[in-house]
Amino acid sequence: MPNYTGINHLAMATGDMDATIRFWRDLLGMRLVAGLGHPGYRHYFLEISEQDMIAFFEWPGVEPIEEKDHGVPVKGPAVFDHISFGVESDEDLWELKDKLEAADIWCSEVVDHGFIHSVYAFDPNNIPIEFSAPAKDVDVRKTPVMADTSPCAEALKGPEPRPGMWPEVTEPTPEAEREVYEGEGDVIRQAVLEKTRKD
User: Fold this and answer.
1) Domain 1-63, what architecture?
2) What's the pTM value of the predicted model, to 2 decimals?
3) What is the residue-wise DSSP string for the chain?
C-alpha cells in the first residue's frame, strides 16, 4: 500500500482571489505559500499544516456557489459536501468562532459529534467549512467503530483494506520508463531556488 501523508491539497474555485486570500490567510491564519498565474487564470496554495494545503483556482466568471448547509442531503449530481479542518483542541474552536463572529461571518455553535467537536461556517465562495477538535478519550483511528444501524455491505467487512479485491500489479513501470511531464509549476521551482540562493 502507498504511504499516505495527508491531503496534499484540496483544489477549489473562486471568482475573487483577493477576498479568498483575505479570508483564508488573514482571518483564518493560513500562509499563502505558492501562486501560479497569468491574465485570466490564477492557482494559489495556502498551508493548512506541514502536510496539507488548500488551493484555489481563480477563473473569470466563477460565482460563489449557492449556500447549502453542511450535511443536508441533495438530489441529482453531487460530488462535494464540506471540508473539515482539524484543530488541536476546543480552545481552538472557540478562538475560530470568536474570530469569525467578530468579522461578522456566521459560525455555528460548538457541536459534539461524540469523537469530535465542531463549528461550521462558509468562506466567501460559500464553500461549507468545518473545524474539528478531537474529543477527549475517543480516538476512532485507534478504535474504529461502526454505529450505523444499517451499514452497507462493504462496511460490514471491517475497517482494514482487504487484499485481493483488485487486480495485482504484475508489470510495474520500469524505472527507465518513469517520466515526469512538465507542468506549469517550474516557475515555482525556479522562484524557490532563486530565493534560497539569496537567503
Assistant:
1) Roll (3.10)
2) 0.84
3) -----S-SEEEEEES-HHHHHIIIIIIT---EEEEEEETTEEEEEEESSSS-EEEEEE-TT--PPPP--TT----SS-----EEEE-SSHHHHHHHHHHHHHTT--BPPPEE-SSEEEEEEE-TT--EEEEEEEPTT--TTTS-----SS--TTGGG-SS--TTSSPPPSSPPPGGG--PPP-TTHHHHHHHHHHHHH-
